[in-house]
């Protein structure tokens, strides 16, 4: 019996009952045109459900290929006894994360979404439009009932069936994977794993009524149609052609030349990587706050790959604008389509480079404007009109449009996606019969044009629908869950901080004169976000805000797992904001102003406040805290742009910027640790016991050159003059040990080959200068002389 064909699972009390039921089913003959099989384990979406993880083997009880940790998600395609087969499961092999095909023991697996039951009939199928409707996809074969495998089409793939043989349907073209390439193949697929969208019993003709007042170009499209008959034996397709005129605005974009030859999938990009050449180039183009946000987004991409659609879509537009030369990446390539898939390190690095640009301040500003607009239904028409206009003008400008759209529920869980819009059509389509127009879309999740990726809309209400994502904007719904997050075809914006150059770009801020929306990220939804006055009094509660002071929900793509992180952005960049809790609890809050990024953690606190003058306060009870503040170059008076303070307080503390550094004040206890970093160097110092002081100044000292220092106002005259650094002579690398590694680093520093984390600790003779004499003393100490 064919285990693959049978999707209904019965649970029996004993194996005897299984045998009896199977025999009775066969002998009765009442199910002559369908087959049902009992199975102890299920196929479907699954995850590893054991703390020690599972081993992936080449065969049941075979050799180990890799080891997948607890929580790894994958898809079980078929069952053999207690073993399940999967064609793509992530796991560790040596020190590398790999995606493998193999077998796992189902006793350690939780099937989270079993594959739905299918009853396969031997007749009744007709020609027509079908969609693959099984999570594991289908294989395209050379013959009905078997034959060699030509490709594998994933769930959701559409195709036209022109001939039927039993349960098998012939399609002249269906997209699918062959090795690592996306290809279109003609062949046979099992129809029991597909859903009929629209039957076709006569040769189809195409009639599209067009009405438009915009300037249009008439394109003659030759459509291949086929006369088919449902039969038990294979019927070869008989092709005829008809010509239909379709009114199209725009569309110089060639889907067969101006798009990538590979798709935005884990199969291509996992694990993702950007090489040092491109990463160094990116960091050299960014300000410190943007570098910090790019690092957050990069870590999130590496830890939980969600796709690089933004990078691929932006590069599509830049290619059409003349920024990207295909032959620079693949020899003799003349079109984007001819660039090799990301086996080439530079190709993948280029795509991820532009993907990471969405974490920069300019992109954040643009995204926040669209989120704010999409959250208000009265402005959605304005956004759609902008999109329709830009897409329809593609024929004149030769510039397609980057379109970001997404969905989010009341619990702030959702997703976002980037595509390329390149034309507008008016007519009717069976896939979206309620809509009378559509925006043509190239979606990098696929390598060829597909009707289901287009954005269908109503010309009167401008409501829209994307079948591929089952995303619909309904104007009558009480809330906008479907959102448009970006509509942009400005190459200067899309190439902001980019590595592709054309006509000598100006690196000035695009939105320097516009107000930036502050954005706050919290670790719990129980917090109240409150706007503060100049004296930190509560001006407005988040539940009572006026319209122009509203706090909007953000998609927060750079913030990690949406189950534990919540993002909001505000419309007033001149105000401060407090994250408030009714009790002392663990708080993890990030705040972003245009030139500042602050990350504050406290083990037990009820309020954290941020002011736009870089003042941060923490109110709590007996709490360990850390304040990590990153400022752009012109905002920081120190040679380092990131300052982190770790300490402990039994009530509250605050850090504020001073002329020559930062003042930490409040109920200081014991010691603090201060770390200063930038892209090139850094230092870490610790204080002595500072409990007798109300405040200390974190600054630089000319002693030892530009060294990090902590000063106290010992005589209470308002001047910070006394260093309270607690140095350990000889511990140059700050690891708590004095050994040969400290001597190696000290020697390199004295010869100008390396920076040092703690200059104070190299001043062995406490002279105030660091010279060869200090190295000699350190060497003697290590050698017990």
User: What's the end-to-end separation, in Å?
Assistant: 83 Å
Strand content: 35-45%
Helix run count: 12
For the CA atoms, what is the radius of gyration? 32 Å
Q: What structural class results from the helix and strand content? A: alpha+beta
The biggest beta sheet, please? 17 strands, antiparallel
Q: Which runs of at least 5 residues are low in confidence (pLDDT < 50)?
A: 1-39, 117-122, 201-248, 535-549, 556-563
Q: How would you state the average pLDDT, rounded? A: 78
Shape by Cα distribution: globular
**How many beta-strand elements?**
43
Q: Work out the helicity level.
A: 10-25%
Explained architecture:
16% of the residues lie in helices and 36% in strands. With 785 residues, it is of the alpha+beta class. The protein has a 17-stranded antiparallel beta sheet that branches. β6 and β7 form a beta hairpin. α5 (309-320) crosses α6 and α11 packs antiparallel against α12 (772-782). It is globular, with a radius of gyration of 32 Å. The N and C termini lie far apart (83 Å). 38% of the residues are buried.
